[in-house]
Design goal:
Blueprint lengths: L25 H18 L4 H12 L3 H12 L1 H8 L12 H16 L4 H14 L6 H17 L9 H10 L4 H8 L6 E4 L6 H10 L4 E3 L6 E4 L16 E3 L7 H5 L6 E5 L5 H9 L4 E6 L2 H14 L5 E5 L11 E7 L14 H4 L5 H16 L2 E11 L8 H10 L3 E4 L7 E2 L4 E3 L9 E8 L2
Parallel strand pairs: 5-6, 5-8, 6-7, 8-9
Antiparallel strand pairs: 1-3, 1-4, 2-3, 9-13, 10-13, 11-12, 12-13
Helix pairs in contact: 1-2, 1-3, 1-5, 1-6, 3-5, 4-5, 5-6, 5-7, 6-7, 8-9, 12-13
Function: Specifically methylates the cytosine at position 967 (m5C967) of 16S rRNA.
InterPro entries: MeTrfase_RsmB-F_NOP2_cat, MeTrfase_RsmB-F_NOP2_dom, NusB-like_sf, NusB_RsmB_TIM44, RCMT, rRNA_ssu_MeTfrase_B, RsmB-like_ferredoxin, SAM-dependent_MTases_sf
Family: Belongs to the class I-like SAM-binding methyltransferase superfamily. RsmB/NOP family.
Length: about 450
C-alpha cells in the first residue's frame, strides 16, 4: 500500500518509529530546510546552480547545505525510483520540499553513512523548519518503507534517464558503464594557470606553500588539479587573475585555435567567458570578439574578463547568431555550440532530471545552423574549432561529417591527444578520462 499522498488531508496518521528522537538543534533543522528548498527548486524544473547561488546570497555558504543538495540531485533518479511506488499520489508542486526531505533522508542513509534511524528522524524533524509539521507522518512512513524495500531488493538501475542509457550503450558499447560511473563521481577542482604571468610549476609551489595539495594535469599544459575542493576566491592569485576555474578538457580549446598576433578571432556562444579569457590571455595581441545571445550570461563574461584584466582587449556583443548573421570576417572562430551537456553531468547533475531525448533534434538543428552561418564569417585559409560538452555522436562526429559533406571548401584537420578517442571526424573525450569532463573537438579549415 502506498505510504503517502500529495495532500495533508490524505495522509494517514502514522506512529513514528520507536526510538527515533525528533528534537534537533534549530540550526541543523534550518540547514536541512535550506537544502530541501534548493532540491525542490530543481524538482520543479529549476536549474541547480542558480538555486545554489540564491541560497548562498541569502544565507552564506555552508558545506552541509551543499553536500545534501548536490548529492541528493546527483542520485535523484535512483532515489525517485525507490520512492515513487510508495506514494499514493505525487506531491503537489507546493510540497516538493517534502519530497526533497524524503530524497535527502535516503541520500544520507545510502551515501553518507548516516544510521538509518538518524536519517529518518532528521528528515522528519526538518518538516517543522519548513512550517509543514503535518507532513511528518508521511515522511516517516515513506522513508521507513523505502529503506525496507532497499534492504530486500537493492536498486539495480543506472541512476540516469533510460533514454540516455540507451543512447550511450549504442554509441559506446565498450565504455558506457564507465561513463555512467564517472557521471556519478564528484568532479575535481581544476584550475587554468595564466602561464604568460606565472609558470605552472611556480604556481604549484605557491599552492604548496599555502598548504594546498595539487598536481599538474597530464594533457592540458595550463591545468592544475587540486587534491580536494577549496573556496575558490581564497585561492592564491585567483582575485588577481592568475588562475581561473576551468576543466582541463575545456582548456584545450584555445591552443587548438592557436590565434596569431593581430588576427581577428571570434568566440561564438562565449558566455560565461572561460574560453574567451583563455584566448585573450594566451594571445594578447589577437583581436578577440566574444558573442552570446544571453545578456545575463554576457554580464558574467564581463566580470570574468575584468578579473583577468582582459576586458579592454575583448570586444563583446550580445547577439543571437542563430537568428541574425554577422558581417565581420575572422581568421579564427571558436564555436562552442549549444548542446545536451551530457559530458558534464558530474558537474551539473540536474541534467539527469531536466534533459529530454526530445531536446536533441532542435539542438542539432541549432548546431548545424551555427556551423553554416559562421562558416561564411571565416576567412579563406582560416580555422574553425567546433566544440561541445556532449558525448552523443549526433551532436559531434555526425554533425561534423554532415557539415563537411555539404561544404565543399571545408576540410578537417586531424587531432591527436594522449587520451580520448579519434572518431570518424574529430576527437572525443569521455567523462573521467584523465580526470576530464566529456568534451568533443573538431578543427576545420577553410580552403584558401
Amino acid at each position: 500500500m502506498p505510504a503517502c499522498s500529495r495532500h495533508r488531508s490524505f495522509c494517514r496518521p502514522i506512529r513514528l518509529a520507536s526510538g527515533i528522537a525528533l528534537a534537533k538543534p534549530r540550526h541543523a533543522l534550518t540547514l536541512r530546510a535550506r537544502s530541501a528548498r534548493i532540491i525542490a527548486r530543481v524538482l520543479t524544473g529549476g536549474a541547480l546552480d542558480p538555486a545554489l547561488d540564491e541560497d548562498r546570497a541569502r544565507h552564506g555558504r555552508h558545506g552541509l547545505v551543499e553536500e545534501l543538495a548536490i548529492g541528493t540531485i546527483r542520485y535523484a533518479p535512483r532515489l525517485l525510483a525507490r520512492t515513487a511506488p510508495l506514494l499514493r499520489h505525487p506531491f503537489r508542486k507546493a510540497d516538493q520540499d517534502l519530497q526533497a526531505l524524503i530524497l535527502m533522508g535516503l541520500y544520507q542513509a545510502f551515501f553518507m553513512d548516516t544510521p538509518e534511524p538518524v536519517a529518518v528522524s532528521e528528515a522528519v524533524a526538518a518538516a517543522d523548519a519548513l512550517a509543514k509539521p503535518w507532513g511528518k507522518g508521511a515522511l516517516n512512513a515513506v522513508l521507513r518503507a523505502a529503506l525496507a524495500a532497499e534492504a530486500v531488493a537493492p536498486y539495480t538501475g543506472y541512476n540516469h534517464p533510460d533514454w540516455f542509457v540507451d543512447r550511450l550503450q549504442a554509441a559506446w558499447p565498450e565504455t558506457w558503464r564507465a561513463v555512467l560511473a564517472a557521471n556519478d563521481e564528484r568532479a575535481p577542482l581544476t584550475l587554468r594557470v595564466d602561464t604568460r604571468r606565472i609558470a605552472r610549476d611556480d604556481y604549484l609551489e605557491r599552492l604548496a606553500q599555502a598548504g594546498i595539495a595539487a598536481r599538474a594535469h597530464p594533457v592540458a599544459d595550463t591545468a592544475v588539479v587540486l587534491a580536494q575542493g577549496a573556496l575558490v576566491p581564497g585561492l592564491p592569485g585567483f582575485r588577481e587573475g592568475l588562475v581561473s576555474v576551468q576543466d582541463a578538457a575545456a582548456q584545450l580549446a584555445a591552443p587548438l585555435l592557436a590565434p596569431a598576433p593581430r588576427e581577428a578571432v571570434l568566440d561564438a556562444c562565449a558566455a560565461p567567458g572561460g574560453k574567451t579569457g583563455h584566448l585573450a590571455q594566451s594571445a594578447p595581441e589577437a583581436r578577440v570578439t566574444a558573442i552570446d545571445s544571453d545578456p545575463a550570461r554576457m554580464a558574467r563574461l564581463a566580470e570574468t574578463l575584468t578579473r583577468l584584466g582582459c576586458l579592454g582587449r575583448v570586444r563583446t556583443l550580445t547577439h543571437d547568431l542563430a537568428e541574425y548573421p554577422l558581417d565581420d570576417c575572422f581568421a579564427r572562430i571558436l564555436l562552442d555550440a549549444p548542446c545536451s551537456a551530457t559530458g558534464v553531468i558530474r558537474r551539473h547533475p540536474d541534467i539527469k532530471l531536466h534533459r529530454r531525448v526530445s531536446d536533441l533534434p532542435p539542438l542539432r538543428a541549432i548546431q548545424a545552423r551555427l556551423l553554416d552561418r559562421l562558416w561564411h564569417n571565416l576567412a579563406p585559409g582560416g580555422t574553425m574549432v567546433y566544440a561541445t560538452c556532449s558525448v552523443l555522436p549526433e551532436e559531434n562526429e555526425d554533425q561534423v561529417i554532415d557539415f563537411l559533406a555539404r561544404t565543399p571548401d571545408a576540410r578537417e584537420d586531424a587531432l591527436h591527444f594522449p587520451v580520448g578517442q579519434a572518431r570518424r571526424a574529430g576527437w572525443q573525450f569521455l567523462p573521467g578520462e584523465a580526470g576530464m569532463d566529456g568534451f568533443y573537438y573538431a578543427r576545420l579549415a577553410r580552403r584558401a
